[in-house]
Amino acid sequence: MSVTKVEELQELIVRWVFDNSPQNWTKYCHYIELVKTGEDFENSSSSVWFHNNEEVDYRVDVNNRYLLLKLFFELNETMHNSKEYWTTCKMKVTVDGQYNFDFGYDIPPRLMGSAEDLLYHPDYESF
What we know:
By secondary structure, this protein is α+β, with helices and mostly antiparallel strands. The chain has helices spanning 3-19, 62-79, and strands at residues 27-37, 40-51, 54-56, 88-94, 99-104. It has a single domain, classed as BH3703-like domains (Murine Class I Major Histocompatibility Complex, H2-DB, Chain A, domain 1, 2-Layer Sandwich), CATH 3.30.500. Strands 3-2-1-4-5 form a 5-stranded antiparallel beta sheet, covered by helices on one side. The longest helix has 18 residues, at 62-79.
């Protein structure tokens, strides 16, 4: 894993937040689930801008949202080791430029529950 490439991708994601944010915001939160299936990813995500702890009703253009998703895919590809990819990421960015990425490696909550999801669990990789 190249730390500089990871940092570069995280900074690109943070730059995306600033470039696509509403005028009045103080914090941005993003949660994404990515599960690698072959060459593809299944994903689910949500994001919210806040102004002084009040949610800002704001929509991002679909094409711009797709660019953010691509950056998260690339971040996951860059960070994975030979065994696993991260499956969840909680990100927070504040208007003063501080940010944090928190990664998880368990089955994502939104993708849990169906028999098909067992295919992604390490205990069920081979039958």
